[in-house]
Structures are given as C-alpha cells and as structure tokens.
Amino acid sequence: MLIWFLPLFLVILMIGTPVVFALLFAPGFMTWITGNEKDLAILYRNVYTGIDSFPLMALPFFMLAGEVMNRGGITTRLVEFSQAFMGHLRGGLAQVNILSSILFAGLSGSAVADTSALGSTLIPAMEKNGYTRKFAAAITAASSVIGPIIPPSGIMIIYAYVMGESVAALFLAGIVPGVLVGVGLMVMVRLMADRYDLPKAERIVTKNQTIAPIEYWLSFILARINLMGLLWAVMRGAQAFTGFEKPQGAMLWGTLLILIILAHFLLVALRGQVSADFRTVCKKGVVPLQTPIIILGGILIGVMTPTEASTIAVAYALLVSVFVLKSLTWADFFDVLQRSALASASVLLLVGAAVAFKTIVATSGAATTLADLILGLSENPLILLFLINILLFIVGMFLDAGPAIIILGPILGPIFVDIGVHPVHFAIIMSVNLTVGLATPPMGLVLFVASTVSREKVETIARAILPFLAVEVVVIFLITFFPQISMTVPYLADFLGCPPDVGYMACISPEPPTN
C-alpha cells in the first residue's frame, strides 16, 4: 500500500503544490496511514541529514561565486570579449549571445542567471541591430541551457550527491556536451542567417580601450600559463592513446618550461595579427575567465576537492571584483550574500526533502516495480535509452531540472547501470536532457525569464525557439548513443575509477553485471 505515495505525489504536484512540500507530504501521509510511525520519524529526520553534508557545501559556494562575478560587472566583459571574436559574422550578435553563454556557464552554472544577466544586455542590443525581439529572446533562452552543462553545474552537484557519484567526474563529462550544444546552436544560426536575412555585422571592438597596470600584468602571466596548460593537456591526451609514460621529475619540469616558452612565442606571433584595441579586450577577459580554469584545474591536478574548489572560486571572485577590477564594493557584498543565501536555502531544502523521499522509494519497492516495468518493454539497451530520453524530455517540459533529477535519479539510475550504462554516462544523459527542458514549452523556466526580460509573450518565444530545441535534441541523442562524447575527458583524467588493465571502451561502456 505504501507504493501509492507516487500517484499521490503526482496529484499533489499537479494541483500546484511546491515541490519540496509534495516530496515530504506524499510519502509522509502514506507512511502515517499505514501505521509506520517509526518510518515517519526517519523520513523527517532525513531532511536534516540530507543537508548535513560536506560535499553539498559546494552548491552554495558556487552560487555565491557566480553572484559575485555577475555583480562585479563580469558580464559586460564577457560580452565585449565575445563581440570581438564573433561580432563580424552574419548573424553576429546571435553568435555573440551563444559564445557569451558558453563563457558565462563557467562562472554561474545556472540557466536562469544566464538568461537574466545576458538577456538584459544582449536582447535590447540585438533588437536595436535589426533582430526581432522574439528571435533575440529565443536564442538567449536556448543558449542559456549551456549554463548547467558546462562546469560548475548546480544540478550535477545535486545528482552526484543524491546518487553517490563523483562531482569531478560529472563536471569533466559535461565539458564536451556543453560545447557541442553551443557549436550546434552556432551552426543553426549560420544556416538561418541567409534564409531569414539576419543582420550583417562588423567586428565590434570598443575603441581606445584602457587597462590598469596590475590587470595587464596579471593577464600577461595568466594567458601564458593557460596556453601552456592547453598544450600540456593535448600532449597528455596524445600520450594516453599512444602509450607513452607521463614525464616525471626533472623531465616534467623541463617539459613545462619548454611549453611555457612555446606558449609565449605563439602569443607574440598572434599579437601582430590583431589591433591594439582587440588585444586589450582579450586581456580584459583573461582575469575573469580564470574561475572555471581554477575550479577544473585544481580538481584535475588533485590539489582540491570540488567543495574546496568552490571556496577558492569565491575567494578569487572577491579578489578580482574588489581589488583588481574594483567593480564591487563591500556595500554591494551584503546584497550578494543575501541573494546567494536565499537561493542556496531553497535548493538545499529541496535536496533534504529529496533524500527523505529517496528513503521511502527504497523501502516501498517502487523502484523494483518500475524497473520491472521498464525492462519489460525491451531487452535492447539502445531502445530503452531512446524511450527514457523521450520520457525525460516530456518530464522536462513540466518539471524543473533539479526536482526531476532528485525524483527520478534514484529510480532510473540503477536500472540503466544494471543494463551496462556507465553511471557517469547516464548522469550526463539525464542532466543534459532535463536541462534542455528548462527551455521547453509549456513550463520551461527560462522561457518565462526570457519573457520577463524581453517583454515578449511566452508563446511567441516558444514558437521561435523550436529550431534551436531541435539542435539540442539531436545533441542529446548523440550523447546518448555515443558515450565517447561525454566520457573521454573524465577517462583521460582518470576520474572514472576503472582498473588500469581495462580498455577505453570497456571502461566508458561496461558490460552488464552478471548475476
């Protein structure tokens, strides 16, 4: 009888009850009427124990870092940086919008923050440049879903905590899918440019740029370190596939010295190919864009956990905004803390309720019943993955990504791991699919945010966004049926936990366990 809490939960959701209360009331009510008062006490105790977690502390710190960077005027610098690179293309401001979302994703990890911050800047600029308001709002909403895919990602932290997976592995697995969504949207804009006569544009570089000496030298050093790191990553990837051993000791330091010298001369060679204003715009983008590099770099080289990386990100964001850019005052910081605290509290309460909900799922036998139902549809894992994508896409139309992951993750995750899908691969399938749902009518949250920012009707934006949603659906199926897309980066970084004697394909796409 306890299993009836699931239909009750759906009914409560459909009448408009907030998710957190539905998560607690439905299982609590069914536990009470079945006479399991002891289980009822455990249910509500799990709300606190679900929040009381060190790894989960990464969530509020990443939110705080994103809020500090946004309030510190970083959004304007990202837009200028994107305009310098993409503004000269046909449909240039639409391309700038997408590239800005890719860069902003490394700072906030939130689709709503992306739509709000970038939309308020780019939608009026696009409209002034000759784009229709509905098109500008649609591309802003469609590109904002990149935010929770490229790390840091709030929903991936939630999934990792609820399902007991590695946050670092999920972060690394999200890099290529996020970039792939962005590239797919750029290709679609280019295809639409001639057909819909999108405005032509010239390279937009603000003239007579100036940069403070401290920021100049910081960007000078950091640009060379970043390029050295990129060259190192390419070299390590080649070594992983060719079987060469990683340099050690003196050879390691010698290799790094050669790479940083090479990076310097490459940048000097590029320097002569662009204008002084273009160089200054790029230099002004270097310091803010170190946030995702610090997060991923610290995790990759093993000097910090994701939670520790989130606190370093906050410290770096404050250092840059207050002392380097001088764009954030301590008076502003109180409001930043308040906004971050409210956002974190709502998410953490949701997570606590989800852990309690997960307890009832485990004890009620609902997971086993649903597993038997799903596995009874087909024995082919590819068909099951196709069907589950359809289910997740429909769920994403009506439910936000966070609650959907919390509710469905404990039910669906074990089923697909048992049929041979790597848990990190399934996490990315689920996260990307439900994230795209944020921009999907009728209830996509970023559609409503874009509507508020642009003052355009939701239904008008929903029609204009359909070509971009088609691109994102194609990317979802590519990620689903080609695990190499998402799994190669965490495999190369050795975050999948595979034994050394297990090959690449066996690691990223394991065989189903035998009973």
UniProtKB/TrEMBL annotation:
Q: Which domain of life is it from?
A: Bacteria
UniProt keyword annotations, A-Z: Cell inner membrane, Cell membrane, Membrane, Transmembrane, Transmembrane helix, Transport
Q: Name one Pfam family in it.
A: DctM
Topology term for the membrane: Multi-pass membrane protein
Q: Where are the transmembrane segments?
A: 6-26, 47-65, 135-162, 168-193, 214-235, 250-274, 286-304, 310-329, 341-361, 381-399, 404-421, 427-449, 461-482
The protein's location, in the record's own words, is: Cell inner membrane
Per the UniProt entry, what species is this protein from, by scientific name?
Answer: Octadecabacter ascidiaceicola
Annotated ranges, domain TRAP C4-dicarboxylate transport system permease DctM subunit: 8-234, 270-485
Q: Which gene encodes it?
A: siaT_4
InterPro entries associated with the record: DctM (IPR010656), TRAP_DctM (IPR004681)
Q: Does the keyword Membrane apply?
A: yes
What's the stated role of this polypeptide?
Answer: Part of the tripartite ATP-independent periplasmic (TRAP) transport system.
Protein name as it appears in the record = Sialic acid TRAP transporter permease protein SiaT
Kindly list the GO molecular function terms attached to this UniProt entry: transmembrane transporter activity
The reply to whether Transmembrane helix figures as a keyword in the UniProt entry is: yes
Q: What is its main location?
A: membrane
List cellular component terms (GO).
plasma membrane
